[in-house]
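tool=predict chain=A
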Amino acid sequence: MSSASQNRTANLYALATIALWSTLAVLGVALKHIPPFLLTGLALTIGSLPGWYRLREWKIPLPTLALGIYGLFGYHLLLFIALRNAPPVEANLVNYLWPLLIVVLAPVILPGTRLT
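tool=predict ok
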């Protein structure tokens, strides 16, 4: 496979990822009738399908893989629960602000840390 072809394929994967990511909250609200645990399982299973054929190439230790899977599952489960129980705009705002809050609140939580 040529370099240009690989770049096009990578760009298509990136665009598909952005499309899936940007519709998560909208679909989460639209699918309120599906229990959040089932919805999370279905979403993560469907999202992982493109990578299953390369499973044997993964060099990730099992405890690390398990932590990642449980972390992603818990995050999305709590997001879907929040989208059901809070106004969706506010729940999504908190969802997208948490990385900023981690950085801004780091000096408060970790004494001696400075933002530069």
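The CA atoms of residues 40 and 77 lie 6 Å apart. The first helix runs from residue 3 to 22.
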